[in-house]
Amino acid sequence: MLDKKNLIKYVFDVYVYSILVFFINRTSRHTEYPVETILAIPPWRLQMLGTYLPILLLVIVAVLFGFVTLLLSSLIGPKKSSRIKLAPYECGCEPVGTARERFSIKFYLIAMLFILFDIEAVFLYPWAILYKKLGVFGLVEMGVFILILFVGYIYVWKKGALEWD
Amino acid sequence: MDMITFPTIDMTPILPEIYLSLLAMALLLINVFMPGRQKGYLGYISFVGVVAIAVMTASGWGIEVSSFSGSVIQDKFAIFFKIIFLLSAGLSILLSDQYMEREGCNHGELYPLILFTVVGMMLMACGTDLMTIFLGLEVMSVSLYILAGFNRANIKSNESGLKYFLLGAFSTGFLLYGMALTYGATGTTRIFGISGQLSQMAAPAANIMLLAGMLLMITGFAFKIAAAPFHMWTPDVYEGAPTPMTAFMSAGPKAAGFAAAIRILVISFPALQPDWSQLFWILAVLTMTIGNITALRQDNIKRMLAYSSIAHAGYALVGFAAGNETGVAGVLFYMLSYAFMNIGAFAIVILIAKKGETNGTVQDFAGFAFKRPLLAAVMSLFLFSLAGMPPTAGFIGKFYLFSGAVQQGYVWLAIIGVINSAVSVYYYLRVMVFMYMKNPSEEFEWATVTAPVALALIISAAGSIILGVVPSYVMQFAQQAAKLI
Q1: What percent of chain B has pLDDT over 70?
Q2: Residues B33, A158: C-beta atoms closer than 8 Å
Q3: ipTM
Q4: pLDDT mean across residues, chain B
Q5: Is A151 within 8 Å of chain B by CB?
């Protein structure tokens, strides 16, 4: 097992290191001397990742943060477990029965329809932002798009897919 | 406010797709708004629509239009393939009503789904951008997954739909990854642009990313056209799917896979032709041999025809491997004749089978010729054509494919192809032996032939004969269409 103090120090080091690389990479993008001379990062890393490096680092930091806090609390937190504490968390309600039940296929249909029309809504946003620039052309195109989805909507409605029973 | 200026858009290349989509959407609405459970009339509407759109598509012959910044094109190649798709869709629609009525799954959604499949295939044939082709492929595949599992009450149909979906999604991944790598290597997804980039490269064959992209795309298309060793899904999917849809799947989507693969490889990768030709040489030999040898042992007629369809993809790959104009024209011609003869053969299978997909083995053909001589004669015609006997369409098709290979110097490929044709004669003739030389079983039932099925049989029989007797008329169109570059 890792020594607790060393672990904390190690995590902190990685954290600081990542942030450092993040900022140095951003600021030194146009400088003559690339980052690797400063931090001795292997050059292939920066060449390959290029401008995506900050995103990658952010992801690593985010994952590490979640993982490390869980790990730390399990390592150094007090453990006084009781029956109620060990019960699965269910929004404050008392858990009843097993969670591995069969549930209605109708949820599947609802979820599918939701995703369909959800994506329609997503496509409306860029149009709304560029509404004036796109002008009549955008209006007509969006009308066609919505009309096609509207036909689908009428179809599922008449087919009874929106009714629970 | 500065307005975004749009290039003038010429809808001509995708007009057939637009009309088909409108027709399909109208049919969907008719389906839910009209009362009653009998939806056969939707089949008639869609058949008339398909014929009208085929006429409209054919009228564009010779008018070359590229549109949407070069992502779709109307050329002879696209039009030829669109006619094949519409033909296979029209014939399958004619076959559907009787079959679906018997199997008790005559849902009105069938016809819109077939039409959407055709829309996807058409986009694959006329797309000149990797993304457009991919879009078409997805529209086609998603509709086909549903069509394969259309007979919901039948467990085999369910299995077919699920298997097709899983493997189809898997192969789509390959294809898309290949497209991504090609884009990474060349910086463009336009297929004319890719060839331009390739011609500027010093040694395109040494570019690993480009090669990997091309290979992955070939893998993806090989899945779609059921080329060995990517054919494993075919027998199960073809056997389980409703028979009219099996007929459709073996003719239309396979041709669509060829259309997109030919366009991408011949136009975009001429610089790498020695490489991909070799690859298709191997694929063709594997596909022909595995398809034919496995078909020898099949008793279930749908499975037999599935393996035979793998073998036929192999023959078409011979022309593809040649990669010259004769070979490509041969592929075009062969896909057209294959649509006629294969859908015709499946029509007879539909007539012989009984409710619940029973009565579908080769033995069930026993004595068919004594009871229904005309139908047996027509079936023999289709089987002769599939086996590649003169004077049928199958013979002429194979002749052009193999002569394309010989022209390119692939003599051995042609020889292997001819040997394979000889092998295939066995299992086609076996059906005929049962039809003509065995006694019918006691409980022989008369197959009823409804008017649409009769029409489909007449069209496919006429096509198989006319393409075989006077091939030059259609062949000249195929040769014009094959002039890709």
Answers
A1: 98
A2: yes
A3: 0.83
A4: 91
A5: yes
